[in-house]
Each structure stands twice: as C-alpha cells, then as structure tokens.
Amino acid sequence: VQLQASGGGLVQPGGSLRLSCAASGIIFTINVMGWYRQAPGKQRELVATITSSGSTNYVGSAKGRFTISRDGAKNTVNLEMTSLKPEDTAVYYCNVQGYRAPITYDSWGQGTQLTVSS
C-alpha cells in the first residue's frame, strides 16, 4: 500500500489550501480515511476523518474551517483548509484504515508540509 500526499506549501494567514492523498496498491476494504498533523515538538494529532459511508469527524480547530472529502472509486482523500492560522503549521499525514479478514490495516503517507506564515 502506498499513500501519496500532495498540496502542502507556504500560505499566508487567512489563506486556503487543499491537500490530496492518493492510495494505491489497496488490497483491503477501506473503513476510514483521515488526515493527521504533527507540529514541531508536538505529538501527531488527528485533524479529520471520513468513513466509507461518508460520515465525517473533525477535531479541535479544524471544525468549521476544514472540509474532508473522499473519492471511493479513486481511493483518494482530500482536505480543504480555509482561514489558515500560523498554528496550523505542521506536517500533514494521510491515513487509511481497513481490513481484509483476518488482517486489519493501518497505512500512512509520507507527509506534506504546510507552513502558514506572513
């Protein structure tokens, strides 16, 4: 399984950005796709998830500013981010969880850097 994240970069405060993640080599049924982030000196934290049925969950400051979406046919997950703040600066990782009985899968992408700064 390979997860290729893209879309990171340098954005000014108040700006917007879209992250994308494409999963390939999937040999299992996907339950949940999500985005996590890790700021310098901090632990990795959950940003948002979306289930195979389309249910979404947002954590903390992502609520109301970020939108997660997925394309089940293409095994991609996107994160639309608006009203970006300097504290959103982090490496963003995509994650895919699923199963193929009796094995459960938990796969991570390589991360993409987002820097919010003027």
Could you explain how this protein is built, in words?
The structure is a single chain. By secondary structure, the protein is mostly beta strands. The protein has no helices and eleven strands. The strands form two sheets. Strands 2, 4, 5, 6, 9, 10 and 11 form a seven-stranded mixed sheet that branches. A four-stranded antiparallel sheet has the order 1-3-8-7, with no helix packed on it. The mean pLDDT is 94.
Summed up, what is this model?
With 118 residues, this protein is an all-beta fold. The protein has no helices and eleven strands. 0% of the residues lie in helices and 59% in strands.
Report the radius of gyration as a whole number of Å: 14 Å
Determine the structural class based on helices, strands and strand pairing: mainly beta
Mean pLDDT: 94
Q: Judging from the principal axes of the Cα atoms, what is the shape?
A: elongated
Q: End-to-end distance, in Å? A: 37 Å
Low-confidence runs? none
Proportion of strand residues: over 45%
What structural keywords apply?
single chain, 118 residues, mainly beta, 7-stranded mixed beta sheet, 4-stranded antiparallel beta sheet, 11 strands, elongated
